[in-house]
Write a structure and sequence with these properties.
single chain; alpha+beta; three-stranded mixed sheet; two-stranded antiparallel ribbon; 22% helix; globular
Length: 119
């Protein structure tokens, strides 16, 4: 799930993106979702918050202005789960060069917004 759909709009719009996340706000955003653990995203910032349910924003592996990114790992067993956030280093310049060399659509926008390129 990218972000919670607003049911009042016949699933055609998303609920407002919360900037200061709390368990209470996430409980409200995902109140109609029938799940104990909810994976969501939008702002590319990995986080784990426990409220009435467990909320995991998995982040964004590879879309950062830095030469590292974060990755969320969730391991499940029969009764529980374990959440771990790890830091992964990578060569951002190579990624940007590959965007250009492979002529990826919207490569300029991606390079600017996701990787902080000033061009």
């Amino acid at each position: 799930m990218h972000y919670a759909l607003d049911k009042s709009e016949n699933n055609k719009s998303f609920k407002v993106v919360e900037k200061q996340l709390t368990a209470e706000k996430l409980d409200k955003v995902f109140d109609k979702v029938d799940a104990e653990i909810i994976f969501y995203g939008h702002d590319h910032k990995p986080i784990y918050i426990s409220g009435k349910k467990h909320y995991i924003n998995v982040g964004s592996s590879g879309c950062t202005k830095y030469n590292f990114t974060h990755c969320s790992i969730v391991e499940f067993n029969n009764v529980d789960f374990n959440y771990q956030l790890i830091k992964i280093e990578y060569d951002k310049d190579t990624v940007i060069r590959e965007l250009i060399d492979r002529n990826v659509p919207d490569k300029e926008f991606i390079s600017k917004v996701f990787y902080g390129l000033k061009k």
